[in-house]
Amino acid sequence: MKWLFLFIQFFFISNGFAIDHEGKRIYLEGLNAQGQLIKSYINDLEAGAALACANCHRESGLGTSESGKTIPPVSWSFLGGNLPVDDKSRFYSIQNKRKAYDIKSLHRLLTTGINSNGNAADPIMPRYVISEKETEQLVEYLKTLYANDDPGVDPDSIRIATIIDPRLSTQQKKQHLRFMQGLFDMKNSLTRGELKRKKYSPIQKVPQYESYRHWELVSWELTGSPDSWEQELTQLYLDKPVFVVLSPLIQDSYSEVGAFCDEMEVPCLFAHGSGRSQGDYFNFVFRDSVKQQKDFLANKMRKEKNKLLYFDNEGQLQQLQSSQLEFLKAKKTSFNLMQKQFNEVCGKDSTIITKADIKFAQQLRKLKCPIDQKIKVLMLMSDAVNFQEISQFFQKNSNPNLCWVTDYGKMLKRNTRKIRVDVLTKKFGMENTNSESLLMNLYAYSLLTDSLHQLAGHFSRAYLLEIIEHMLNSFPNYTYFNSVSGAPKQRAIVGPVSEYCPKGDNSI
What phi and psi values does residue 308 have, to the nearest 5 degrees? Predict the structure, then answer.
């Protein structure tokens, strides 16, 4: 009974729960109640696939841009009102003047392309073979899209949570919270003036300042075992709702935290990715380098099925059949046996794959192929390997056929964000005992800062998720990687690892 009460309580305080009705299927999938495709036309040509409203107007209903066209918002709070409403709102308005839509005029727009003013809509707007009843169902769903701001936002403040694993050391917890609080304090000190400008800004500057809020850090330090976290987090959320969860610090699997975020429909940025999740609609995951390397190796295996070799447990050179890094550990074997096997594969356009360590790298440096025959040795870096030592060794012993694979960030001699972490820890008066963890916090914080600014005062969680997708696609500097993908619904923040051959050709 307690959980039933909590569920009902949360249902009424949050508009996050999706309301299941036929209009939702029409909007998101372009299907009618029978699951059939609603026919649509563009310039009198029938579309061959579903042209769901959400394809252009997005799931949030707050619109986007497409091929140089501005796609207007379609939540009923916009469609159901006149534009502009007042002098200020005309700067938000996509159309200079538009009468409010009702069910009848919206049905006319969908079926004939004539808007509420009696003018022809943009030709990229599809025309649908849709009934009046289906239009009514669609309107009911549009009324659920951004009816008002989501929980966790007040007129002058926004609450953002971070989550702490109870199994972590006191030092780890303290460093994480102190760095996060330092970032929030810095953000608020820079925002103070913007809050004043928001109240007294000229009309044309209003949209610029609408998203500014005082950031409040809410620390959720968990106490129970992982299997109780979802329940514990739900209660914490009900006691004090937050708009978004930033950089949860979890020791290993974050599946329980992810389940909470998905169930409560709260966006979560997992900066400390364990690589065990691809993310889901409400969870963005920073994939770790080990997972990246596995993907890299699996891709090479598809392209070069008979060219990849590795040393097995007995030190024998075998053809690689699996992308699991456990099979790629550097094996202890005699130098003579390694040289003998090396001679057999030299000149056969093969690549030996192994995990890197200095002693094994020293052995590999001594191996020689017959005259004019070469073989590439590709060494996979991991978090367990001291990158600096390996890097220094390879730099001193340059060989274009001795290469390693690592994530992009570790290859940079001057990573500006790493430098900034050092500066910030000094500014916050704290020790930097784990720069990697703090660096990922800074990445996630920077991504959230810029994404929230783009909301233009529309504090919709669904809209925030869509903006984060766009930010990742357009501004790859939020991760280690030199390129990232942020396609719709893609929630794993990923990018390519790099194959590096010191002073040599790094392409196969």
Answer: -100, 130
Helices (H) and strands (E) in the chain, counts: 18, 17
98, 85 Cβ separation under 8 angstroms: no
332-359: string of b/e by CB count within 10 Å (b at 16+)?
ebeeeebeebbeebbeeebbbbbbbbee
pLDDT tens column, 275-324: 455 556 777 777 656 666 777 777 777 777 677 887 776 777 878 776 55
3-class secondary-structure state, position 19: coil
Q: What is the pLDDT of residues 439-467, one digit of tens each?
A: 888 888 988 998 898 887 889 999 999 88
The contacts of residue 105 (CB under 8 Å, 6+ apart) are 99, 115, 116
DSSP string, 116-133: TTSSBPPTTS-EE---HH
- pLDDT tens-digit readout, 258-274: 899 989 999 998 887 55
> 424 near 442, Cβ under 8 Å?
yes
Closest listed residue to residue 286, CA positions, set 408, 452, 201: 408
Cα–Cα distance measured from residue 260 to residue 156, given in angstroms and rounded to the nearest whole number: 27
DSSP 500: E
Burial label for 434, CB within 10 Å (0-12, 13-18, 19+), is middle
Measured CA to CA, the distance from residue 445 to residue 447 in angstroms comes to 5
Per the structure block, which two tokens stand in for 424? 């910030």
Position 130 confidence tier, pLDDT thresholds 50, 70, 90: very high
